[in-house]
Amino acid sequence: MMPDMSEELRLPVACPSCGSHLYRVSKVHNPDDKVFCASCKRFLCLYHEAQTMLEKGTGDELEAMIEEVVNRNHH
To answer: What is the pLDDT of residue 59?
Structure first.
């Protein structure tokens, strides 16, 4: 059995299918790695696009604090 080579990441953008903010991404963090919803497995974007979303933020202070805590605990 292969070990899980992915980790969870919380993004400011909700999944269009289920509304979750938690996504799975490869631990390797290649710019072209695909980012999928952790709940419904829908493809959202590429890792470099997710990084841009995190840099831009939500514009909402509470959401930004939640993302900081969740992402810090998963890295």
So the answer is: 66
Percent of residues in the chain assigned helix, strand, coil, to nearest 5: 30, 25, 45
Residue 70: per-residue pLDDT: 77
Beta strands 6-10 and 22-26: pairing type? Answer: antiparallel
Cα–Cα distance, 59 to 32 (Å, whole number): 26
Strand partners, 35: 45
Beta bridge partners of 7: 25
For 4, residues 6+ apart whose C-beta sits below 8 A from its C-beta are: none
Mean pLDDT, the chain cut into blocks of 10 residues (75 residues total):
78 93 94 97 96 80 76 65
Q: Cα separation of 11 and 16, whole Å?
A: 13
